[in-house]
Amino acid sequence: MSPSSSTIGHGGDSGRDTAAVAADARGNRVVSAVELAAHSSVHDCWVALHGKVYDFTSFLEEHPAGPESILKLGGTDGTEMYETVHNAGMLDDFEAELVGTFQP
Ligand code: HEM
Question: What percent of the chain has pLDDT over 90?
Answer without folding.
Answer: 73
